[in-house]
Design goal:
By secondary structure, the chain is mainly α. It has helices at 4-13, 15-23, 31-40, 43-54, 59-65, 69-80, 85-91, 95-106, 111-117, 121-135. It has two domains: 1-65, no CATH class; 83-137, no CATH class.
Length: 137
């Protein structure tokens, strides 16, 4: 298991190496380590910690993960496994992530995801097709 000092050094050397250790579950599960990972501010590491170490959501990991719309989508899909206002808001910063969130997390159209998806013509078309397919059911 990595120590607090090991985690800091790995992060400073290369955040991907830290992510690998989190993925391999070589990071101890503790509130102190989670706080440290979150203070490092890397959305990918926070997502991986929530998924692989905590094996569930916390407000702390969600907040850091939501700094990036893509990781916010993964967090909502893989960790929360349900809609959450914070992840939806983060995903709605980019059209593609908003569309993915609507389809995979909300599993229904919402005003927020529709507005965000409609900012890109191609994504708007996908959103409309998906929304129309739901009406046929």
């Amino acid at each position: 298991m990595l120590t607090k000092e090991d985690i800091i050094l790995l992060f400073l050397e290369d955040p991907l190496k830290l992510e690998t250790e989190i993925f391999k579950e070589n990071v101890p599960k503790s509130d102190e380590i989670r706080t440290l990972i979150c203070e490092l501010g890397n959305p990918w590491c926070a997502y991986r910690h929530a998924r692989n170490i905590d094996k569930g959501p916390t407000n702390e990991t969600r907040t850091v993960t939501c700094k990036d719309p893509g990781y916010a989508y993964w967090y909502a899909r893989d960790v929360d496994q349900n809609p959450h206002p914070e992840t939806r808001e983060a995903c709605c910063k980019k059209p593609w992530e908003a569309y993915q969130y609507a389809v995979s997390v909300d599993k229904r159209p919402t005003k927020e995801t529709r507005q965000a998806a409609y900012k890109d013509k191609e994504v708007k078309d996908w959103y409309e097709q998906w929304e129309n397919s739901l009406k046929k059911i």
